Amino acid sequence: MKNFIATIIALSAISAFGQTYSVDSSASKITYVGKKVTGEHTGTLTLKSGSLTFKGDTISAGEFVADMNSLSSTDITDKDYNAKYVSHMKSPDFFNTEKHPESKLVIKSSKKTKNGLEVSGDLTMLGETKPVSFVVTDLKKTDAAVTGKSNLKLNRTQWGLKYGSTSFFKGLGDKAIHDEFTLAVELSAKASTAKQ
Fold this sequence. Notes:
Radius of gyration: 19 Å
Number of strands: 9
CATH superfamily: Lipid/polyisoprenoid-binding, YceI-like
Shape: globular
CATH class: Mainly Beta
CATH architecture: Beta Barrel
Strand content: over 45%
Distance between the termini: 26 Å
Number of helices: 2
Mean pLDDT: 90
Helix content: 10-25%
């Protein structure tokens, strides 16, 4: 009887306050695509930590931290050029990972749409915090786990990343880099505890 009552209390807490899930970093993946006049570069980032809280079928809160020093290149096959590219991406010209080793997304709210779950929040990168919104698709939620996918299209100049941008520099020719880049996220998280 005591176990039954405890279960009812736990389920009531989850219903009232939401169920919290902790990110499984080993099963989650972030892939980026950055484009320039002469082509594009792809690579990955690692989620350092994260959690999200559902209230019913919508996300009421969440926070994700990406390890910027985990940035890699997946399209450059030459070992030396790959290392040079990654080093440049981590330099002050781009993500300045020595000064800003992490980027953080804080989810504030979400709502159901015909395309998926539209999420709103704040993204902190390079010491700047800006609002973002994106749609989560292929969302699958059970009491034990959550998985989902999303594509974030970001204008890097909003966070002060101006290197190679024709919005700020003229005459760049084939050295120009597009302002917008994409993050494709595949998220996997496991249930933790009820959270108020």
